[in-house]
Model the fold of this input.
Amino acid sequence: MTTMSTVTVAGNLTRDPEIRYTRDGQAHSSLSLAVTRRWQNRDTQEWEEATAFFDVSCWRELAENVALSLTKGARVVVTGRLEQHSWETEGGDRRTKVEILADDIGASLRFATAEVQRVQRHNGAHESVDKAAPA
Done:
């Protein structure tokens, strides 16, 4: 696994986030993000667009808040690190996948409003994190 540059992308969730827990109880959520770029062709004056899809992974409180707050179609802003994973298939072919390991995910307010609620967590010590719920 190789960690690469930090990125920020805004797009729409293509499916509901999936949450799972490791054997030691750490939450992990995975989601898929569609990022569409739209521009006007200078020659034809027609609008064109291209869509890129990103797999996003997040951990612990962020993973739980994402799973509780976001659903398919929600527009979000994701900041994180690009991570490259490489493996070999059973047939001997080499495969590579790049995903975003999220440091932060928030509801995009470009086309929506959101209400932020403070979530209290009790993990031995008192700590709290913010949770954004799209309106």
In short: The chain is about 5% helix and 65% strand. The first helix runs from residue 60 to 69.
